[in-house]
Predict the 3D structure of the following.
Amino acid sequence: MKQIITATVQNRSGVLNRITGMLNKRQFNIESITVGASEIEGISKMTIVVDVNDHQKLEQLTKQLNKQIDVLKVSDITDQAIVARELALIKVVGSGQLRAEIQGIIAPFRASIIDVSKDNLTIQVTGKQEKVDALITLLKPYGIKELARTGMVAFLRGQQPSHVTEINSALSI
Amino acid sequence: MKVKLESEMRAVQNVVTGADLLIQSLIDEDVEVIFGYPGGAVLPIYDALYRQKHSFQHILTRHEQGAIHAAEGYARTTGKPGVVFATSGPGVTNIITGIADAMMDSLPIIAFTGQVTKTVIGTDAFQEADVMGITTPITKYNYQVKELSDLPRVVKEAFHIATTGRPGPVVIDIPKDVTQELSVGEYDCSFSLPGYQPTIRPNPLQITKLADSIEQAQRPVIVAGAGVLFAEATDELKELVETYKLPVTTTLLGLGSFPGTHPLSLGMAGMHGNYVANMAIYKSDLLINIGARFDDRLTGNLHHFAPKAKVAHIDIDPAEIGKNVKTEIPIVADAKKALQALLQKRIQTPKHDKWCETLAHNKQEYPFWYDHPEEYISPQGLIEKIHSVTNGEAIITTDVGQHQMWAAQYYTLDSPNKWVTSGGLGTMGFGFPAAIGAQLGNPEELVVSIVGDGGFQMTCQELSVIHEKNLPVKVIILNNEALGMVRQWQEKFFEKRYSESVFATNPDFVKLAESYGVKGVRATKEEDVLATLEAIFSYDGPVVADFRVCQQENVYPMIAPGKGAHEMLGVKR
Ligand SMILES: Cc1ncc(C[n+]2csc(CCOP(=O)(O)OP(=O)(O)O)c2C)c(N)n1
Ligand SMILES: [Mg+2]
């Protein structure tokens, strides 16, 4: 099952290495991991998408993350009301007539063409991962020359339908 | 002319560099001893050590691995952090084994490593190694100090991190130019670690749950680990055990957390533990783990581990709870605080007389046993004799292998912090240098290092240190002219194909010792054992003793790999 974990971390040098190293050592299957600035200076936000198949492994993941000295807070937001987005850049073969066709395909996805050259064009799409996946599938027949995805960033929606459980080493037990 | 020279010298003395600041920080942390080895990147630090008046000793080992294991031995027996200096590149890589060992066994170590000058970091400069990259997975935390003004704070933080919560090693990597820089004025040492707040006090709800479970238990058993020792909770454990008549087993690293000769002690559990201890866990209906991490050498095959038990687990590291064994009663806390909370509860003593009787009976019925062919010195018998000659009161350090297991089985300990062994990593070469640290930390105590002929050869160069500092460590080699534990596994599980496990030659350990200026003795016959031991322990100074023991002896009983605790081999003769 795919889990979405966010971690608030202190932006000390080596923190990303420490976390990815731990995930790797403990054999967690990372689908994507993103890190970037948060609203507070010196604090970064990580979004980790991970494939775990049992509850015990998931608990280990959050506990091991919490154990890191630079990690301030860990939340499993998989089952919460969240906003989650990913950005992808897709370079496809396309000139002349094909261009119009491609434009037609991407329009419902609200994707945009951000670069054009003689025989290819680059499309930018943002959205949920499924949406990005779907667009990539549709574009495949045209020949994808290059693809880069950012991985998911996510956090909770302002309004939660139900109670939010926060996973914190001190509180969960 | 003369006057001028003097004033120049005074000027040099008064200059405060980053290195001076480092030495001062260590003085401020009440460091007693540093184990280290100099080199290019730490020259300024060693210069400050030379120039500056300081309150600690520096022990120059003959290999950096010796330094870090000595620091581990010091930490294990004193509870204080062990401090290490190593130079950049090969100096650092030589302490990696010890750092990994300290991480596995939760020992508070602070290792200061030299680094190349800031401007050339990342250019594959001479003696550059990616210390942060290499040590990240094997440290509790690590730092590279880029600004001198951070140094005093980082040292303070490192000591705090290494010694609190679940202890562990911290590395501080310092580029050479930072230690050479002139310091200006005072630096702010205050720190805050919002992401690091170990939970010390137990959740009262879980304590109540455990209390209720003890009341209802019919076959309760305690597994005591090193967490009890770190938390200095041995008195509380004893009180709990005696109040409610709870049988106790310990892990390898938990030896000494509960008196081994106590009627309620079942001894060590695990791969080479007591049959009665393993069966108690197997049959138990309530398993109370205090400060152990359910390592695979303890549990054997997890499918057969304590299959009928409700599991309670007290640990300061929440990540250890539920990691290997499903846990009904998780208690994140310092072991002392948890036990104190439990002792405050009014609990009815469980009705488990029959269980206690059975265990007492089995303890009589299935003791450790060994054959004793007359033509050889029995390694097990030797440990028993060491125990009796030293009244069971020595600090014992061991290396890794058969001798380690025999020491664990036959040197029954009644008091804490006297057992120094490499558990999690199983590091050969650990035992002898660890004894150096143990002796320095406990000058009044008798320190005996029980080692194998294989492992001793990995770090025996530290004989220089015990000679130089006249440390009266007694090194006892159980010399079976083999990598005994490997030989045993090849005998049992590889149809006696003794691949690279029997030594064709060994050094003359007596002459080896003597060449370092250390007294060497040897015993080859059983009838000489007692007299040799008397000679060792009546001698006031370091000794290396070469005991030629029976090569064919195996460690029993044993849980074979992949098997459950109830399937022990060699339980009876
Ligand atoms: C550094 C290291 N290398 C290899 C091993 C694997 N190993 C475990 S026990 C053992 C044999 C140890 O031989 P010795 O020191 O003579 O002790 P004995 O088992 O004979 O008592 C070996 C090679 C290890 N534990 N550590
Ligand atoms: Mg040997």
Remarks:
- DSSP finds 24 helices and 18 strands in chain B.
